[in-house]
Structure formats: C-alpha cells, structure tokens
Amino acid sequence: MAGRKIAVDAETWPIAGTFTIARGSKTEAEVVTVEIYEGFHVGRGECVPYRHYGETVEGVIATVKGIKGALEGGADRALLERLLPAGAARNAVDCALWDLEAKQTGRRVWDIARLPSPTAVVTAYTISLGTPEAMAEAARNAGRRSLFKLKLGGEGDIERVRAVRDVLPLAHLIVDANEAWTPDFYGAAVPQLQALGIELIEQPFEAGKDEALARLPRPIPICADESCHTRESLQRLRGRYDAVNVKLDKAGGLTEALALARQAESEGFQIMVGCMVSTSLAMAPAMVLAPLARYVDLDGPLLLAKDRAPGLRYHDSAVEAPERELWG
After folding, report:
1. What is the set of active-site residues?
2. How far is it, in rounded angstroms, from Cα 277 to Cα 299?
3. Per-residue pLDDT at 2 exceeds 70
4. For domain 5-106, which CATH number applies: 3.30.950.10, 3.30.565.10, 3.30.590.10, 3.30.390.10?
C-alpha cells in the first residue's frame, strides 16, 4: 500500500520495586513497540518478548523487520497470521493494524470486532511472590481493591495465602503457581486453599506435564496459562482445566485472542484475560476482550514506576476502556 511505513523499537519501563514469580525476578519491563504509518494516521501496538517462550527483544525486532516489505505492501491481519507464528512479534503488529483501521475508519475497535463496548471492569491486582510477611504487607498497602492475584511458588504457599487472607478477609483471591507445583503438593494444598476462599488456581503444573489434572479433583477451578496459547491448545486442555488465560502476547495478537476466547467459551471454559508486565498500550487491546471474561487481570501499568501518557484510567479496583488517544 503506497505510503505505508513501519517503525519498530525497544523500550524499557522501570517496575515499582521488584516483580517476582516462581521462575525469577525483574525490575524493569522490556517491551517492543510497532508503529504503522499510513497517510495521516498511525497504528500502534506493544508486546513483551518472553524468554520462557524463547523470545528476546532483539529477536522480536528482527522478526518484525523481516516482514517489513509485506507490511508496507499492504499486508492485513489475515495475511499476518500466515506470515508470522503466534507470539509477541505478531501481537505487536496485529494490534497496530487494528489501531490503524480504527483511526482510518473513525470506528472503535470493539465496533469493528462486533463486541459490546467495554465498560469499567474490576481487574485483579498482583502480589509478587515473597515471604508471607512481605506478601501480607504488599496486600495491606495495595489500597481499596477487591480482587487480588497471589503469585505462589510451592513450599510455604499455604502460609503465604493465609497471611494475605488475614489482612484481606473480604477480598476475592486467585492464585498463580506459574508451573511450580507437583501433584502431591496440589493434593495437599487444594483443600486448604478451598478453606481460605481461593476462587481460581492458575497453572499449577508445568505446561506439557499436566496430565495429572485429568485425574485429580478440581473443587477450585483450574486455569491454563502457560498451557494455553492459541485455539490449537484447547484440545489437550479438555478435562484438565476449567478456565483459560487469554493473553495477546501468547496468542499472537487480538485477532487470535478473540477467536480463542470465543471458541473456549463455546466449549465451556471460563475466560480470564491476562497480561504481561507492560504499559497501557499493551493493556488497551486486551480490554476489548473484557466483555467475554469472567476474570480480568490487566494490572500491568499498576506494577510500573510510571506508565505512558495517555494511559488507561484506574480507580481502585476498576479499569476503564481506552480512550482513542491511547489505542483503538
């Protein structure tokens, strides 16, 4: 398409303190942004290369530059799915194409996608993995929020959850083990977590080694995160999981994430829409999925020392739909 230009760049955003999960800690979010210029309009997208999936900032930038000719030649979202596999690189480009179309047509992305307009929704707020005392203190200092996600890591998890529950007796709590548990630990922990009022357990076992979930009781719904990337994941999740965490970086963009959420919902899975630690530019496309989700976990900007401006507007537990100036 004549006049279309592509820009891709890396950015680093400091995290407020340290963000820790079972696999490690980090103090900054490394993101890649894609901008697609056409005429008077520019579409933007942001992704987070994730080393756990073999991605790097340099690799994602190289991947996007590798299809620059196709994009500048007018590649659309349908062609993009054939050009790139699911993952962070495709996500940034896909979201930029959605944003560009919205700006060119004067329509909001959710109207283009034939979805209800997203309204303010409750988002989970993440408490990083730490000692029971540290997690309780973080929860105490989190302000007036109603839904929390607790990062867990195995030994000591019940003490961690109990410490948070003691300071948040009325809050809704979900937990995320990030693949750190064993079946034996699961069997011992779940009844205690049920007694503590935990509503959802995310990814207890390593992806690809979660067969035990088909045999174990699931009195608390189990949500697939690392085990669920695209629609192709769903076949092996049946009978093991009750919910799926739809993330744009895993799915490879809003296009596949929408298709995944709709198919998962039709097959009886609950939907969580989640995120990596990143700015409001990455959260905004995921907000399009909020009307389909039982749980919304889009707190990435709240974990940063600062967000880009304009950003999403957060009020206590609620996050509002993105304004046009941000995305979509």
Report:
1. 151, 247
2. 8
3. no
4. 3.30.390.10
